[in-house]
Amino acid sequence: MVRIASASILLLSALSSLVAAAPVPSSNSLVRRAFALQDYADFQISDGTAGDAEAQANAVFVDPFANVDLATVDDQTADDIETMRQAAESAETDDFNPAIEAADGDAADALQNGKIKNKVLKLTAEVQGLNIKLAKAQAAGDSTSSIEKKIAAEQKKLTTNIATDKKNAGQTSKGVA
Asked: Which domain of life is it from (predicted)?
């Protein structure tokens, strides 16, 4: 009986030392898991109905960073946001614009609503990327005035497109992916 008790104590102390030595995930690694680079077709928000682009875009680019100090976001994640922003911009110029020109009536309206939702997506990515740059610059003690000006300009565009999306709430929206 004494051997079993001694063996149990040794086993428990060995297990507890393993648990104590387990790495605790940093907020950086949690962000990396919460935000992942995706193909445009997997994160586009243009299909469906107009009116909820802000929430949909935030779900892609803002919500994964809730309760995260943006100054701690790693460079790869910031690069991934920019890559996805560029994909949304390419969809706008290379796909939406020609599709809208070629369509008419309800089809053109649905594509235009999709383009507005895509602009909200693109601009949300832009503002989030700039917010990360701002947080990193502030943490480093660097000048932030040029970043703040860019944020203000992009936020103004974003606010305009969100208002247009909300004005068209309930209308059909069509994507190009």
From this structure: Eukaryota
To the question of pTM greater than 0.90 for the whole model, the response is no
What are 40-75's pLDDT values in tens digits?
999 999 999 999 999 999 999 999 999 999 999 999
Q: How far apart are CA 36 and CA 81, in angstroms?
A: 9
Distance CA 17, CA 40 (A): 45
Strands 48-49 and 172-173: antiparallel
What is d(CA 145, CA 23) in angstroms, rounded to the nearest whole number?
38
Q: Are 54 and 165 in contact (CB under 8 A)?
A: yes
What is the token pair recorded at 55? 């929430």
Residues 6+ apart with CB under 8 A from 169: 49, 50, 51, 52
